[in-house]
Amino acid sequence: MEEFPAQQEHGEANAIGSGPYKLKNWERGNRLTLERFDDYVARSEASDNLAGAKHAYVDEIVWLEIPAEETKIAGLQTGEWDIVDGAGLDFFDTLSNNSKIGIAQDNNHISSVDFHLTSSPADNKLLRQAVLAATDVDFLMAGIGPKELWRTEYNRYPSAWPSEAGKELYDQGNMAKAQQLLAQSGYDGEPFLLMNPNDYATITFLGQVIKPVMEEVGINVEMPGMDWATLLSRLPDPDWDMITDWWVEWIMADPIMDALPSCSLYFGNWGDTPACDTMA
Q: What are phi and psi of 161, to 5 degrees?
């Protein structure tokens, strides 16, 4: 099979399935349809999350692109579609009170604000430290929804490598210190490009909250409107400074698996080392 870098368009003809399913049709920005792959042979082991046997229990799966969160939830409530992935936490109480809807909670999502270390002005370490100093993590996370549905965690590897290293730098919420660091950085008001998706309920809030905080520090933030697909397509560009996103704990369970310090996944495919850093 031919290999394609992340920044290169592979085309529908080269898209692969998931094993039990194969690609049937892909209407970019609208829907993606998978159908059962009859030639797939499942493993003999019992299914265990990402491992073991995989079975295609339905003939066809259709993924719909629905930008508006309210429309996603309304369609779920009326039965227009069966599943909503990553529903906004503000809808948790409403959905919980609907006996026809089941909610699966994943406690291992990690909200993140990531710098591009080779883009100016994000390549300025003191500027990045200023943003870190200004960040009140509880205030930042309050934008996602009710506090009982999230927690803050200074330890990057809480499961496998517990440590208090750097704890004092987490959740500082110190605007005076942030402004002092920015003054020391020599920052001259250069535009700072923050890419934040406007169609991803569990991510959108990050940009909406942190942008005014950074502007209070004194950073000239530009945050153009874009959807998640556009953000991903622009990752190979050299001129963005920060993205908002989220990760899952199994992708950063320890220093070897961590996608950011190892510059793997999105970051390693740029040929741009070091091209990754994380702030929250």
A: -135, 65
